[in-house]
Design a protein that fits this description.
The complex is a heterodimer. Chain A is of the alpha/beta class. Chain A has 6 helices and 20 strands.
């Protein structure tokens, strides 16, 4: 019998379904730990894997004096009005410390839930010590009953030498919710950072531009985003990798579909050290009226860096639809099959269970295509 | 199986097919020959029902029903299949995923066919992305094996294929059109566009048609027609007024 996550059982069936759409397991099944914050209240924190410690950030800052060096270290608290607002609040959110050499087979899940029309703030710190492997899935969800609301989130990732962090964030916000995450990661020698972002549900506005600073030699960062923008959604999304050390590499992949919404899809790789490599792949499909503005930037600062990008925005080609229709699929099935393929981003290094969760979140949105 | 009557087809407002009559009985496979630009591919795509091909006159009767106005996918579901000469690349869509969708949830047979066509290692590849000429043809035949059409049209199945692959593809096509069965047990039919006639090394075609400038100019024994072309070129057919 798997232990229930405290706080989940109080939710309405509609909200439980929304949590599940964001990859949350209502019991602790296939999870090595769970964190649940509803509005500004931390309702549940548990972690059964002894190599990993998860605790509310407020508690972590009291428990570990050294943590203050990690707090507001990668994200500048004076960056903008949102960071300043969060800095003025009592710290919420979670801190995860994956101890040296630890490896969680089952991912940790963290759920940031908005139950009322208010502002939710979080400040998360995630640390993978030398040789650790940490997999995390985060469900960002607003209640079906929430009208207006805002979520401001700070997340700082520290990926130690030879360590790996995979973070998969699935958004299920509401039509009038504004979301402003501010995230950054620092990578040490031979480390890997995998950041996956899925947003298939309506949201009023999202603005984010996470950064990865590859400061350790041969470290690797890979950002993957899969986004659907329904009518009324305004998404300003970006991802940046700064290749500061020899042999570092980054890949920024995004798949964007608009059905009337507006998406600005930014990507930026800075090749600032010897033998660095970076690639940006941004593909957009306009299904109905809507805007996709792809802005891939590659910035080489020395001769021995290799950077490339490909960006394409358009509608589904008629010959592709008719090719599948010749195999017996009607137009709707053919279109959905092509879109599902378009969104199919396989992420190397991700456990199968998390890949399945990503696939399920995208599959669940098929009606929205 | 198929009865095309006085078919006229326009592409981009210009008539390309000028009154073609074509009958392919059940259990027979015919070949379609003709110079480049004569309208062979247009004829096949018109029979299949692609949107850029407007039938302005005539009828397409398939299995006793007039399908001239039927949408493309309904013709496919009704038993027509087409092997594309140059299929589009569909980024992200895996060949295996398409076979799953086509197989309707019982993909075991599809994987068996993939093995037969040496395509197992392509199931996780984006459809037609960076496939070689032979791989494209094997993928097309594999899809048709899963689709199991009663009437299959093949647009230059041997073009761009090496000798080893021609044997594999030729034998598979022969099975698709029941040529591996005794003559009285053949129910499937085919129409194959060929320039070289290599495909006839693997299946005996029952009849041949020569298409020139959007008109059928000759019918008869396919090997004899091919021999005339080889010896005298297409000009002989263009000038011939036998039909």
């Amino acid at each position: 019998m798997h232990k229930a996550v405290e706080g989940f059982e109080d939710l309405s069936p509609e909200d439980k379904e929304r949590l599940e759409q964001s990859g949350m397991m209502l019991s602790s099944e296939n999870r090595c730990g769970s964190f649940f914050q509803a509005d500004q209240d931390v309702r549940h924190t548990s972690c059964t894997y002894e190599g990993i410690e998860m605790l509310p950030t407020a508690e972590a800052l009291k428990k570990y004096d050294w943590l203050k060096d990690y707090y507001w270290n990668l994200v500048d608290k004076d960056k903008d009005e949102y960071t300043r607002y969060v800095a003025d609040q009592e710290p919420r959110g979670y801190t995860i410390i994956a101890k040296k050499g630890s490896k969680n087979i089952f991912p940790l899940q963290t759920c940031l839930f908005m139950a009322t029309d208010d502002i939710q703030t979080v400040h998360n710190i995630i640390i993978a010590e030398e040789g650790a492997e940490l997999h995390l899935i985060t469900g960002c969800v607003s209640s079906h009953s929430v009208g207006h609301g805002s979520h401001y989130g700070i997340t700082e990732f520290y990926v130690g030498k030879d360590a790996l962090i995979s973070t998969t964030m699935i958004h299920t916000w509401g039509e009038d919710v504004t979301v402003v995450p501010r995230s950054a990661a620092k990578l040490e020698q031979n480390s890997t950072f995998l950041s996956n972002y899925i947003s298939m549900k309506p949201v009023k506005r999202v603005q984010m531009y996470p950064e990865a600073w590859l400061t350790g030699e041969n470290s690797v960062a890979r950002f993957s985003s899969v986004v659907l923008a329904p009518e009324g959604s305004e998404l300003d999304l970006g991802q940046r990798a700064i290749l500061e050390a020899k042999g570092t590499s980054a890949e920024l992949i995004s798949r964007v579909i608009t059905r009337g919404g507006t998406v600005v899809s930014r990507s930026h790789i800075v090749g600032g050290a010897e033998e660095t490599r970076g690639h940006i792949e941004c593909k957009g499909l306009i299904l109905e009226d809507g805007i996709i503005h792809a802005i891939p930037e590659i910035e080489g600062r020395l001769t021995n860096t290799s950077l490339s990008h490909e960006a394409a925005v358009g509608k589904i080609a008629r010959d592709e639809i008719e090719y599948l229709m010749a195999r017996g699929l009607d137009e709707e099935e053919a279109t959905a099959t092509i879109i599902r393929g378009f969104l199919d981003v396989k992420i190397q290094g991700l456990p199968d269970s998390l890949q399945r969760q990503i696939d399920a979140a995208i599959d669940a949105a098929e009606d929205g295509f | 199986m198929l009865n095309v009557e006085n078919l006229h087809v326009e592409v981009g407002g210009k008539e390309v097919i000028h009154g073609v009559d074509l009958q392919i009985p059940e259990g027979e496979t015919h070949v379609l020959m003709g110079p480049n630009g004569s309208g062979k591919t247009t004829l096949l795509r018109s029979i299949m029902g692609f949107s850029n091909y407007t039938v302005t006159e005539g009828r397409i009767i398939f299995r006793g029903h007039d399908v001239t106005e039927l949408p493309l996918y309904e013709r496919a579901r009704y038993g027509m299949g087409l092997m594309f000469q140059r299929p589009p690349t569909i980024s992200g869509l895996k060949l295996g995923k398409l076979l799953d969708v086509m197989a309707g949830g019982s993909p075991a047979k599809a994987y068996e066919y993939a093995e037969m066509m040496n395509m197992s290692s392509f199931l996780d590849r984006d459809l037609n992305a960076n496939f070689s000429g032979g791989e494209i043809k094997r993928s097309e035949v594999l899809q048709l094996m899963v689709q199991q059409p009663d009437f299959v049209m093949l647009d230059e199945p041997e073009s761009g294929v090496d000798l080893e692959n021609i044997a594999l593809i030729g034998k598979a096509i022969a099975r698709l059109v029941d040529k591996d069965r005794h003559i009285i047990n053949r129910h499937k039919s085919g129409l194959i566009i060929t320039h070289t006639g290599f495909i006839m090394d693997y299946l005996e075609a029952d009849a041949g048609h020569m298409l020139c400038n959007g008109e059928i100019r000759c019918r008869g024994n396919p090997r004899e027609i091919l021999k005339v072309i080889q010896e005298h070129g297409y000009q002989e057919c263009i000038e011939c007024t036998k039909l």
